[in-house]
Specification:
The complex is a heterodimer.
Chain A: H1 3-45, E1 55-61, E2 66-74, E3 80-91, E4 94-103, E5 108-116, H2 122-125, H3 141-144, H4 151-154, H5 158-180
Chain B: H1 3-8, H2 24-30, H3 34-60, H4 62-68, H5 72-94, H6 96-102, H7 113-121, H8 128-158, E1 160-164, E2 167-170, H9 172-178, H10 189-220
Antiparallel strand pairs in B: 1-2
Classes of the chains: A alpha+beta, B mainly alpha.
Chain lengths: ~180, ~220
């Protein structure tokens, strides 16, 4: 038989053996990797709901500015107890990324900044800023939102840019939250 | 070369990182913390030992070696890629924090020159046992080098040594004694190049000193 053909067949056989080996390892590790991922997400969301383990967690991957949606559901009735949105919007020199938790009565449970690609200084201290949205009905976001203030912030131009980004995040969530809870409560 | 020499060569004489300067990219990128270096070392040890063993077994078989020879590079890559994917999945499952910290640099072990280099230069021409010893030697030499780099960088840049997980040694007392702050530059890429450069200079100085001593002895005799 042609030598090149034999070499090719040997390579093919090796590929098949390696494929089977990888499938076997994947069979044993896939479940553990999936469990680790769920555990990591629960830990991330525990800041909003310390009793998160008493609920089922559904994750919905989305495309666009709202990139993820986590629904906490009652373990027996499967009613949506809360929704946590992973949302991002353009801010100062980049995007601001937030997690916004909404309760079943459509009030904002809390929000957190999970990163932004802005500059050092205000960009890094954004996590400490309070926009006065905790406990507010999400439909009232436009009137309740506390803008950043202060000469050192507004005079340089960061302030309005960050305000715009954070405002946009709340606006995006307000636009779809009712539908995500099943059309009303 | 006996087994002892074969084992010891990877640490200093033929250290893949400090002498052959192979596999530099991941070495400089992941050495911001000691636990990253240890994680990378474990991954490279697993891949290098098994790839050397498998390639040596394949190539030392007379008929199989003959068939594989024309396509040996694709065969090496298939074997190495399989082992790297396995180690990637295992690390993701059992040490997810280290896996996350090492990120892309685990899959990139596939193209690490040390692995392919040892497969072609050593494992394909030597017996399986010798190849395994060579793999262990080179992987430990690589791990030794990145561990040294990571300790220097982490101590100078952060004032800590993260051994594994929550086991962190606080070395801030050095900075408190000197009344200065940790040098942030060392955990950034420039710190990696500086540390690596100084280590290379140190190794070169020791090697030159030994060589000049040998020349002196020969001249005297």
């Amino acid at each position: 038989m042609n030598k090149g053909l034999i070499s090719g067949l040997v390579l093919l056989c090796l590929g098949v053996v390696c494929g089977v080996l990888l499938a076997t390892v994947n069979h044993f590790t896939a479940g553990i990797i999936h469990e680790n991922a769920i555990k990591e997400k629960r830990e991330m969301l525990r800041q909003f709901y310390p009793d998160i383990d008493s609920y089922d967690l559904d994750e919905i991957e989305l495309e666009g500015d709202i990139n993820s949606l986590y629904l906490l559901k009652d373990k027996t009735t499967h009613d949506v107890y809360a929704a946590i949105y992973g949302v991002s919007a353009i801010a100062y020199k980049g995007r601001v990324n937030m997690l916004i938790a909404i309760d079943a009565d459509f009030t904002v449970r809390d929000y957190a900044f999970v990163g932004n690609s802005g500059t050092e200084g205000l960009g890094l201290t954004l996590a400490d800023l309070d926009f006065g949205m905790t406990g507010v009905l999400i439909s009232d976001w436009a009137t309740e939102f506390d803008a950043l203030s202060g000469v050192t912030v507004t005079s340089i131009g960061y302030g309005p840019a960050y305000d715009g980004g954070v405002r946009r995040c709340f606006e995006l969530v307000a636009g779809r939250v009712v539908a995500d809870f099943g059309g009303g409560n | 070369m006996n087994q002892k020499e074969n084992f010891l060569k990877g640490f200093v004489k033929e250290n893949p990182l400090l002498v052959s300067m192979l596999g530099m990219c991941p070495s400089l990128a992941v050495t911001t913390r000691l636990e990253n270096a240890i994680g990378m070392g474990i991954a490279v040890l697993f891949v290098l030992v098994l790839s050397n063993l498998l390639i040596s077994l394949i190539m030392s078989h007379q008929k199989l070696g003959e068939w594989v020879k024309p396509v040996r590079i694709p065969v090496y890559i298939v074997v190495i890629a399989t082992l790297v994917t396995m180690v990637d999945m295992l690390m993701n499952a059992f040490i997810p924090d280290i896996h996350k910290s090492l990120g892309m640099f685990i899959p990139l072990i596939v193209v690490n020159c040390i692995i392919l280099g040892r497969a072609e230069a050593f494992a394909s021409e030597n017996k399986p046992l010798d190849s395994v010893v060579d793999g262990v030697s080179m992987a430990l030499g690589f791990t030794f080098a990145i561990v040294v780099i990571s300790i220097i960088r982490e101590v100078l840049g952060n004032g800590t040594i993260t051994v594994w997980g929550d086991v962190v040694l606080n070395m801030r007392f050095i900075f408190d004694f000197l009344n200065i702050q940790p040098i942030d530059m060392f955990v950034k890429p420039v710190g990696a190049f500086l540390t690596f450069g100084f280590l290379l200079a140190g190794v070169a100085a020791i090697t030159n000193h030994r060589a000049s001593k040998k020349v002196g002895k020969v001249a005297k005799s």
